[in-house]
Specification:
single chain; 124 residues; alpha+beta; 2 domains; 5 strands
Length: 124
């Protein structure tokens, strides 16, 4: 199984190394992807110790052996409530709204398409 594109039902967003994104640390803005190398917890959906959000290398902390040496965001490292996720980047929104590979998804999810179109309009 590849991790290029998947879906995280906990955070209700696309994940995988094929999904361009920004770091979920508030105010960071670093361009990353939502692949395993950026996920808090080091495992899909965050594993046992992480929140499953995505961070640049500057915002991931190596945890000790008691937490499987996972890479964690500062909130999970301190065992606190997760950050709020950042919105999808305009590039990804455009891709989902226009690329032929997403046509079936668009046909089956008109409400989500409407939401993405509103998001795209707000990006300017």
């Amino acid at each position: 199984m590849g991790w290029s594109i998947g879906y995280d039902e906990n955070w209700n967003r696309d994940i995988g190394y094929g999904v361009p994104a920004t770091c979920d640390h508030p105010g960071c803005g670093e361009e990353i992807d939502r692949g395993l190398s950026h996920v808090c917890g080091g495992d899909p959906y965050g594993g046992q110790h992480g929140c499953g959000l995505f961070f640049c290398g500057k915002h991931l902390i190596p945890a000790g052996a008691k937490r499987d040496c996972s890479q964690l965001c500062s909130r999970c490292y301190s065992r606190r409530k997760p950050f709020d996720p950042t919105p999808d980047v305009p590039e990804w929104v455009r891709h989902k709204l226009t690329h032929e590979s997403w046509q079936q998804w668009r046909d089956e999810n008109p409400d989500e398409v409407k939401t993405l179109k509103n998001l795209e309009a707000s990006h300017g």
